[in-house]
Amino acid sequence: MLMMMDTLDKMNKLLEPKYRLSGKGMYVQKDNPKLLVIEDLAPLGFRMASRQDGLDLSHCILAIRGLARFHATSVAVCEKVIYHKSMVTFDCDD
Question: Which Pfam families does this entry report, sorted A to Z (predicted)?
């Protein structure tokens, strides 16, 4: 939940709105039952694709570009923000 409410928020702030990586985190409940509410992306034009149909080439390329953007932005956040060691499982210097 920290990833959704903190890290992804920082990542999205580095990007232009049209390149956002996720919906905005709206609410977190850490006690049982754990709950995470995120923005509905349907009003922005996103729709669920059929899992049975799979992806065509253009959507595969779009997904790979999104993963590359996610990776690059996560590195940028890692280099700019000092996290407490207990919050991450990797070293930003590696």
Answer: EcKL
Q: In 3-state terms, what secondary structure has residue 93?
A: coil
- The pLDDT value recorded for residue 93 is 53
pLDDT number for residue 49: 83
Domain boundaries, the chain: 3-39+53-88
- Look at residues 82, 69, 91, 92 and name the one whose alpha carbon lies nearest to residue 8: 69
Comparing CA positions, the residue from 36, 90, 30 lying closest to residue 22 is: 36
pLDDT at residue 82 above 80? no
Per-residue pLDDT, 18: 86
